[in-house]
Amino acid sequence: MKTEIFLNLPVKDLKRSMAFFTELGFTFNLNFTDDKAACLEIGENIFAMLLLEEFFKTFTQKQICNTATTTEILMALSVDSREKVDEIIAAVVKAGGIEYMEAKDYGWMYQKAFLDLDGHHWEVFFMDESQAPKN
User: Fold this and answer.
1) In the chain, which residues have pLDDT < 50?
2) Are 56 and 49 spatial neighbours (Cβ–Cβ below 8 Å)?
């Protein structure tokens, strides 16, 4: 059996969130998408379930964190080039997201961060492992 990862993220407006991620070039698995949830395809076997807040609350007894003041999770996505990092962040800003924090360039790794429409923190990075410092 293959392992799949499903992140579950609360969202205020499902259609708006779907439009945002579509503008970034992502797709959705419509078999797991309805009026309460959408299955964002991030990579092979990696998905984010965007759940309307009221539906999200049915899976937990805890409060949903306020993403304006609290970080619940950092989601990091690797891409094929430094240019792709910059392209994604430009698309984020165009789609209504927020570029968050300054770019970090370690020579062998380059990363930028963004906040989606619901304030979830995403990292986008390119890493050349062959150039990583050896311990």
Assistant:
1) none
2) no
Backbone φ and ψ of 38, nearest 5°: -140, 140
**Cα separations (Å) of 23 from 17, 19, 59, 104?**
10, 6, 28, 24
pTM score of the predicted model = 0.90
Which residues, other chains included, contact 67 with Cβ-Cβ below 8 Å and sequence gap of 6+? Answer: 115, 118, 119, 120, 121
Q: What pLDDT score does 135 carry?
A: 76
CA atoms within 13 A on the CB side of 118: 24
Q: To the nearest whole number, what is the mean pLDDT of the chain?
A: 95
Neighbouring residues of 53: CB distance < 8 A, sequence distance ≥ 6:
10, 11, 12, 64
